[in-house]
Amino acid sequence: MNVVVCVKQIPDPAVPGELDPQTHWLKREGKLILDDSDAYGVEMALQLATAAGGGDVTLVSMAPNGETSGLRTALAMGAANAILVSDESLKGSDALSTAKVLAAAIKRANPDLVITATEATDGYTGTVPEQVAALLGLPSITFAKKIETADGKVKVERQTEAGYDEVEAPLPAVVSVTAGVVEPRYPSFKGIMAAKSKPVDTLTVADLGLEGQVGAANARQEIISVTPAEERQAGEIIEDDGEGFQKIVAFLESKKVI
Amino acid sequence: MALSKIWVHAEFGTDKPSSITLELISKARTLADTVEAFYAGDNADAVAAELGKYGVSKLYTIDTGGNLQGVAVASAVAAQVEAGNAPDLIMFGTTYDGRDVLGRLSVALDRPVLTNASALEVEGDEVRVTEAIFGGTQLVTSAFRCEPPHLAAFRPKSFVAEAGGETTAAVEAIDAPDKGHAKVVERHVEEHSGPILDEAAIVVSGGRGLGESDKYQLIEDLAKLLKGAPGASRAIVDAGWVPYSYQVGQTGKVVKPDIYIAAGISGATQHMVGMKGSKNIIAINKDAEAPIFGIADLGIVGDVHKVLPALIEALKNR
Ligand SMILES: Cc1cc2nc3c(=O)[nH]c(=O)nc-3n(C[C@H](O)[C@H](O)[C@H](O)COP(=O)(O)OP(=O)(O)OC[C@H]3O[C@@H](n4cnc5c(N)ncnc54)[C@H](O)[C@@H]3O)c2cc1C
Ligand SMILES: Nc1ncnc2c1ncn2[C@@H]1O[C@H](COP(=O)(O)O)[C@@H](O)[C@H]1O
């Protein structure tokens, strides 16, 4: 079974984000890393391919400046190869543009299953998986907390407000996975060395035949203002001397909840 | 200036329309002459009656044939739009099914989406939505620059649900040309007692500072004594101590209770986004530098294993 995993390469989330003052786009300069949320998808894909008796795991990513650091991490985990779409004209892409690019790239790999995360750590629109599925004309199951494939079907436990649903769809299909669905493996030293020579196919928007249809050229929304949110002030902070709980009791009393 | 028509994706909780649905409708009513809703689920008549109290004049119902909502609902709505019955704006909650339908509809109509929004304004015929980014420290306002209908998803608790503009909502079944192929085989409901997390007046949340999964009982006990709901940081949800439905934050629930108690939670931006709107915040953390203290009305620098049992004892003895 061949599986495509969409992996986003993002700026280190530990570093505070910044918007470009001119365009208001998220600054994405310098080294990018594999989005943690997608590490679950990579692990899931590797496990499913193994369970199905083999097949390749192909990564698909759209990122600026030909960035591959995050892809190398996922290749080191065991993915076989990667497709990277990188193009100056993709700066400022919205979710639908991103999905159009990913869908066109995914088609080239002709997978049995496509895996994404439910939402990216930066940006987090949370609609890309469903948009990709719609563009590919495939069934989709979002928010998977458990996945199995058998008999040409994918069976998923899908998180819901009240609990979870068992959902089934015929393959090929798109499935988005929640964090914690599996424990992502750490790349071994051997994996890291092997990843250096694994193929990364770098494509442009023209290669995908999407000129003028994606990126800022097709942005149909505009950021008109960015303002600081009202800050919440800190109140009283006290060191617990064994009687700290009394302070809480008094606070709850003053708010008339007890 | 008002829009002429807004549609809202309606969802149903356990026994009534979801609070997010009522919130969206209440807001829509202030911005448009006509508010209609579309809905795929059971009890359509009851839903219509309830939504009518909030000013919804028509409820379109859609049969998904037992499949997930995304494909079916989007195809039904898109068919209406193509047939000329188009609103100016279609509002969704940032919910599981809401996002599915929104994503599919965005492709069907070839329209961009704005998500995670927390405010909505109409200026002339320009529709603007605002989203909080960087852990809620910056507010980004965007305007649509395309033909309506515009598509946007809003975070729970962005608007206040208020009945008004009472009408009787007519129910009209509309056809879904494509029902998709993702079949719901069985639904599992996880039991819980006490108030629902996102509706509780008091929320007591625990984090990694509790040390081990057994210690979450302290959170449950305290929540129960205060007639509140227990919540959690993602750290302990990922660790498997409590189900995902307990999670507060960017990828969990947004809560705005009267009192929020954070015990052993550091206050990562992604957690704070989900609870910053609480009226009063109490934090217990052994690290005086923990970011959670920056937004707490009362902060106790101390060990949760000492403070919580003492607090529980004191409340029991009242
Ligand atoms: C895309 C994305 C989405 C996310 N979404 C969410 C979300 O929705 N919700 C969420 O919560 N997180 C979310 N996170 C994770 C978030 O970044 C933090 O990792 C998480 O909130 C940390 O949980 P915590 O505070 O329990 O753990 P930690 O950060 O490890 O903090 C534990 C705290 O406990 C204190 N402590 C330790 N021992 C004691 C003791 N004995 N007594 C008192 N205090 C003690 C420590 O001082 C520390 O401050 C998200 C992250 C990403 C990248
Ligand atoms: N630029 C990208 N490259 C690869 N995958 C992406 C990209 N953007 C989004 N995705 C995938 O889609 C998921 C949801 O993204 P989003 O809708 O932006 O929150 C992500 O977690 C990724 O798995």
What does this 3D model show about the protein?
- The complex is a heterodimer of chains A (258) and B (318).
- Chain A is an alpha/beta fold and 258 residues long.
- Chain A has a single domain, classed as HUPs (Rossmann fold, 3-Layer(aba) Sandwich).
- In chain A, 26% of the residues lie in helices and 28% in strands.
- Chain A contains six helices and 13 strands.
- Chain A has helices at 36-51, 69-77, 95-109, 128-136, 189-195, 244-254; strands at residues 3-6, 9-10, 33-34, 57-62, 81-85, 113-117, 140-150, 153-159, 163-170, 173-177, 200-203, 221-228, 236-239.
- A nine-stranded mixed beta sheet of chain A has the order 9-8-7-10-6-1-4-5-11, with helices on both faces. A two-stranded antiparallel sheet of chain A has the order 2-3.
- In chain A, helix 2 (69-77) packs across helix 5 (189-195) and helix 3 crosses helix 4.
- Chain A starts with a strand and ends with a helix.
- Chain B is an alpha/beta fold.
- Chain B has helices at 19-31, 44-52, 69-82, 96-109, 216-225, 234-238, 269-272, 304-316; strands spanning 3-10, 32-39, 56-62, 89-93, 113-123, 126-133, 138-144, 150-154, 170-174, 183-189, 202-206, 229-232, 259-263, 280-285, 298-301.
- In chain B, 58% of the residues are buried.
- In chain B, the strands form two sheets. Chain B has a nine-stranded mixed beta sheet. Chain B has a five-stranded parallel beta sheet with strand order 12-11-13-14-15.
- The mean pLDDT of chain B is 94.
- In chain B, a hairpin with a 2-residue loop joins strand 5 (113-123) and strand 6 (126-133).
- Chain B has two domains: 3-173, 3-Layer(aba) Sandwich (Rossmann fold); 197-316, TPP-binding domain (Rossmann fold, 3-Layer(aba) Sandwich).
- Chain B starts with a strand and ends with a helix.
- Chains A and B meet through helix 3, helix 4, strand 7, strand 8 and strand 9 of A and helix 3, helix 4, strand 5, strand 6 and strand 7 of B.
- Strand 13 of chain A pairs parallel with strand 15 (298-301) of chain B.
- Bound molecules: flavin-adenine dinucleotide and adenosine monophosphate (AMP).
